[in-house]
Amino acid sequence: MEDGAGGARLHVVMLPWLALGHIIPFFELSKRIACKGHHVSFVSTPRNLLRLPRMPPRLAPLINLVDLLLPQVDELPRDAEATIDLTSQELRPYLRKAYDELEGQLCRFLEEARSPPVDWIVFDYAPYWVPESPQGSGPRLLRAAVGVDGGRRRSDDAGAPDGSPEWISFPSTIAFRGFEARELFRSGAERDISGVSEAIRFGVAISDCQVVAVRSCPELEPNWLNLLTEIYRKTVVPVGLLPPVAEEGPTRTAASGGGSSTPFLWAFRRPSRDDGEELEKLPFPEGFEERLDGRGLVCEGWLPQVRILAHRAVAGFLTHGGWNSVVEGLSLGRAIILLPLMFDQGLNARDLVERGIGVEVPRDEVDGSFTADGISQALRLVMASPEGGPIRSIARESKATFGDEELHDEHLTRFIEYLVEHRRAPP
Predict the structure, then answer these.
(1) Measured between alpha carbons, how far is 301 from 20 in angstroms, rounded to an integer?
(2) Torsion of CA 145, 147, 152, 158, to 10 degrees
(3) 319: Cβ–Cβ under 8 A, 6 or more apart, which residues?
(4) Hey, how many other C-beta atoms are within 10 angstroms of the C-beta on 128?
(5) How far apart are CA 37 and CA 172, in angstroms?
(6) CA neighbours within 13 Å on the CB side: how many for 239?
(7) Is the domain 4-242+404-422 a CATH 3.40.980.10 member?
(8) Cα separation of 274 and 362, whole Å?
(9) Other CB atoms closer than 10 Å to residue 187's CB: what's the count?
(10) Mean pLDDT lowest for which of 58-72, 236-250, 371-385?
(11) From the UniProt record, which GO molecular function terms apply (predicted)?
């Protein structure tokens, strides 16, 4: 562990949104900041703090876990403190409403955090109110992005349907499908029960912070990082990809789907009924469980994804394309099969396909529907067919960028040096 950049120790407050795909990357960044000798206060709710990966004992003196009690909102399931606890996507606005009510508790914590005083608040898109709180004029504000942020606000510069928008100065095929864009902007642009839209949260969080940090690196996407700087008109600092460090997991078969004749492990989340209660009987096709015998494993609940992906038996990774999962898979050189479901996942999928790293499951362009045959074909293409050889090869080569711990530690060091150099002078 290093000594805080020559003794100039920082105190950084981390404030992620209540989703494990945000909480875990924020915690990983927290650990790496602490490894450099700086203090971190990691703020979340009690149940989410219990979900965090084990903290190395040597970092415990530098990472303070701050639990804020999530106010009860009648529409939320009891003890729901993260998106994984929700029985329906329609409940997300109520979780955001409860989250917004944490502002008072956060302000009290910041008032009391005097030893050492807070230098930076690293916050997610959802707590757009952080810049407006009374303490917003104290610590400097850093917006951290774990995935792809919304970019332009104008709708009249979208460019031709078959080409890049005018404001993208380099060739790219990355774009939302029609069904993705409709769902994203329908839910994102409308004011919800929390009183604001998702678009407002993104926009205010970006416009009112001093600097934007992204989980990326110039070696991977220099053009996009430069474009973000132009769009946001403020400093954009890559923190590196934060590749996971994993020991090889237990001996298990892994990786594919029931109709592909390939051994697989499926991380399954039990769906809910209309009344919010979990289904007692799993909604699998008749005979599915018998066909699993000896070649497939279905596991409910949270799984140690990195440990599983690190196992030498794993050849491919079928994922929704969330950035956290993409980094974990490619840092281990696994070929990627993509089935994006929401938010930035569609853009991530197009990006990987454009790079020749992965294959996307075919979807109906109008309604987004897909078939079991489509999944099976994508799995066989990537994992078994001669035509998938280049994809497997490029995925293995991608490990040199995604999994280069020394490279990404250099980016993290430069990020921390920026925080030290630009922190607000004490009163």
Answers:
(1) 13
(2) 170
(3) 325, 326, 329, 336, 337, 338, 339
(4) 23
(5) 40
(6) 24
(7) no
(8) 29
(9) 18
(10) 236-250
(11) UDP-glucosyltransferase activity
Pairing of strands 335-338, 358-360: parallel
The pLDDT of residue 272: 55
User: Which candidate, 159, 163, 160, 161, places its Cα nearest to that of 365?
Assistant: 161
Q: Where in the chain is the domain with CATH 3.40.50.2000?
A: 4-242+404-422, 264-402
d(CA 380, CA 146): 31
Q: How far apart are CA 62 and CA 60, in angstroms?
A: 5
Task: Please say if the pLDDT value at position 121 is more than 50.
Answer: yes
CATH architecture of 264-402: 3-Layer(aba) Sandwich (3.40)
Note the pLDDT of residue 291: 72
Q: Name the CA radius of gyration of the chain, rounded.
A: 22
**Residue 231 to residue 163: CA distance in whole angstroms:** 19
Gap between the Cα atoms of 260 and 372, Å rounded:
9
Strand partners of residue 235: 211
Mean pLDDT of 145-174: 62
